[in-house]
Specification:
Largest sheet: 2 strands, antiparallel
CATH architecture: Up-down Bundle
Order of helices and strands: HHHEHHE
Mean pLDDT: 87
Strand order of the largest sheet: 1-2
Low-confidence stretches: 1-11, 182-189
Helix content: 55-70%
Distance between the termini: 38 Å
CATH topology: Four Helix Bundle (Hemerythrin (Met), subunit A)
Number of helices: 5
Structural class: mainly alpha
Strand content: under 5%
Number of strands: 2
Length: 189
């Protein structure tokens, strides 16, 4: 191959690929720590302190719980990947996406990652048939609501301005709905 096509923009493409790969590694690292703490370690502590043991047999509640937890985990992982691959950042507030992410799960609801985590917790509550895990899941979602309203939304408004305002008009905070208009990702100023 005579190098013209590859050379033109080759460095740009290499830089973009490297930045995307770096964002992906960071996002997976932070998500693993978050998931390990909030969705595994703390719920295990809640179950242990409440004296809840594993189910005696695998029945319908365990099957339903497994399906719900897997759906929630899949949604949360899709969000992490979207943050890294589209937004070139992570879910961590100290290393956020460099672009306003309005694709993937974010075109249906503004906070799909928290909904995915809440579904994973609800699945665990179903699996163990544990009221304490339902309470933990509800507490998690309530806490995330306050984080979203008091920190994330004001930060996104300051960072992305009118683009974020338009996104908020199109997409609901917590209740998923079909997208009203397709949105392109917006670069951070």
């Amino acid at each position: 191959m005579s190098g013209g096509h590859w050379i033109e923009g080759g460095e740009e493409n290499a830089d973009a690929s490297a930045a995307t790969m770096t964002a992906l590694v960071r996002a997976i690292t932070y998500a693993t720590l978050f998931i390990g703490l909030v969705l595994v370690f703390l719920p295990a502590q809640v179950l242990s302190r409440a004296g809840v043991a594993g189910p005696a047999r695998f029945g319908v509640p365990q099957l339903a719980g497994t399906i719900v937890a897997a759906a929630g985990a899949t949604l949360a992982i899709a969000c992490v990947l979207t943050f890294a691959l589209v937004g070139r950042g992570t879910p961590a507030p100290f290393d956020p996406p460099r672009r306003l992410v309005v694709r993937g799960p974010y075109q249906y609801v503004r906070n799909p990652m928290y909904l995915g985590a809440g579904l994973a917790l609800a699945g665990a509550a179903l699996f163990y048939q544990a009221v304490v895990l339902w309470a933990y899941a509800a507490g998690f979602l309530l806490l995330m609501h306050f984080v979203v309203v008091l920190y994330e939304e004001p930060t996104l408004r300051r960072t992305f301005g009118q683009d974020y305002e338009a996104y908020c008009r199109r997409v609901r905070r917590w209740l998923p709905a079909p997208p009203t208009t397709a949105g392109a990702d917006v670069k951070r100023p």
